[in-house]
């Protein structure tokens, strides 16, 4: 299974050898698109996809994502250096990414494995173009699944009494595997602000409710007691405010008076899986720009 997927990764990287993405946010003003387009033209680049948005053309914020292909072999560092003057002129917050350089992911999970199973299925099917480098859990339940896919598994016990030591070990593992992004696939532990500082807007959580409803623990049970007619799931970037980080994706499913709490959980798991997967794909494809406590999705 691992060999089969490695072939898909290699084919993807070969197809995107000279493809890049540039993602920009800056104060809106005339000339931004023209300046970026002229720069790419001088690099003999061909724009493959372009998306832009402004909160207000008169003094608002402007967002731009361009995917382009260079007709000749280019050096990423040289492109970045050449773009610096334009970025400085327009006060840009920007990132240049080479598409073939896949993001390295770590998945944190506890006992419920349905989101992890979805990630692994999409990964081995070639529908999630990232490097799934390691799985970390505070329980042993996911070990067999990780090993079946040939992915390193680290069991690091964690609870509120040993949180500091657990996070020290977790950060060590993330450093070992050079992780770019952490996925909380139903990881049922709170991360401290000290941990979060290392991965600002690079930790993605799936919460099993349609936020801001039912923040925190046992949302399905509380939804059942409240008699809701819709249940949902929310994928968001993690901040020090519990379940209140920038929302990437949400979805819902209708329920009725006949559904018990167990039925809400069963249906909700399907929603969780799809919502988290869409958020992950948008993130690894550099389609998400954080703007305050909101996100722009291209």
TrEMBL record:
Domain ACT: 21-101
Catalytic machinery residues: 243
Protein name per Swiss-Prot or TrEMBL: Formyltetrahydrofolate deformylase
One Pfam family this sequence matches: Formyl_trans_N
Top EC class for this record: hydrolase
InterPro entries: ACT-like_dom_sf, ACT_dom, Formyl-FH4-Hydrolase_C, Formyl_transf_N, Formyl_transf_N_sf, PurU, PurU_ACT
Keyword Hydrolase among record annotations: yes
Gene Ontology molecular function, alphabetical: formyltetrahydrofolate deformylase activity
Record keywords: Hydrolase, One-carbon metabolism, Purine biosynthesis
Organism: Terribacillus aidingensis
Parts forming coiled coils: none
Enzyme Commission no: 3.5.1.10
Function: Catalyzes the hydrolysis of 10-formyltetrahydrofolate (formyl-FH4) to formate and tetrahydrofolate (FH4).
Single GO biological process annotation from the record: 'de novo' IMP biosynthetic process
Cross-referenced HAMAP family: PurU
Recorded catalytic activity of this chain's protein: (6R)-10-formyltetrahydrofolate + H2O = (6S)-5,6,7,8-tetrahydrofolate + formate + H(+)
NCBIfam families xrefs: PRK06027.1 (NF004684), PurU (TIGR00655)
Assigned protein family: Belongs to the PurU family.
Pathway it works in: Purine metabolism; IMP biosynthesis via de novo pathway; formate from 10-formyl-5,6,7,8-tetrahydrofolate: step 1/1
């Amino acid at each position: 299974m691992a060999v089969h997927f490695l072939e898909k990764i290699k084919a993807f990287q070969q197809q995107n050898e000279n493809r890049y993405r540039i993602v920009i946010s800056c104060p809106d003003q005339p000339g931004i698109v023209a300046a970026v387009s002229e720069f790419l033209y001088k690099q003999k680049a061909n724009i493959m996809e372009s998306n832009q948005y402004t909160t207000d053309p008169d003094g608002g914020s402007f967002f731009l994502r361009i995917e382009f292909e260079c007709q000749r072999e280019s050096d990423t560092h040289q492109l970045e250096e050449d773009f610096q003057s334009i970025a400085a002129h327009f006060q840009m917050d920007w990132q240049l990414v080479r598409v073939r350089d896949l993001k390295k992911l770590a998945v944190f999970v506890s006992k419920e494995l349905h989101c992890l199973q979805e990630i692994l299925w999409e990964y081995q099917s070639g529908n999630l173009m990232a490097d799934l480098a390691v799985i970390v859990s505070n329980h042993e339940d996911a070990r067999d699944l990780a090993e079946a896919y040939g992915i390193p598994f680290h069991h690091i016990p964690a609870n509120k009494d040993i949180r500091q030591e657990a996070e020290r070990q977790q950060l060590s593992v993330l450093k070992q595997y050079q992780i770019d992004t952490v996925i909380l696939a139903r990881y049922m532990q709170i991360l401290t602000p000290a941990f979060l500082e290392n991965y600002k807007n690079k930790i993605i959580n799936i919460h099993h409710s349609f936020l801001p409803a039912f923040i925190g623990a046992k949302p399905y049970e509380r939804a059942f007691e409240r008699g809701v007619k819709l249940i949902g799931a929310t994928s968001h970037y993690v901040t020090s405010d519990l379940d209140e980080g920038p929302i990437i994706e949400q979805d819902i499913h209708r329920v009725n008076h006949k559904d018990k709490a167990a039925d809400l959980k069963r249906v909700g798991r399907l929603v969780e899986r799809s919502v988290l997967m869409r958020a992950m794909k948008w993130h690894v494809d550099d389609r998400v720009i954080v703007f305050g406590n909101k996100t722009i999705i291209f």
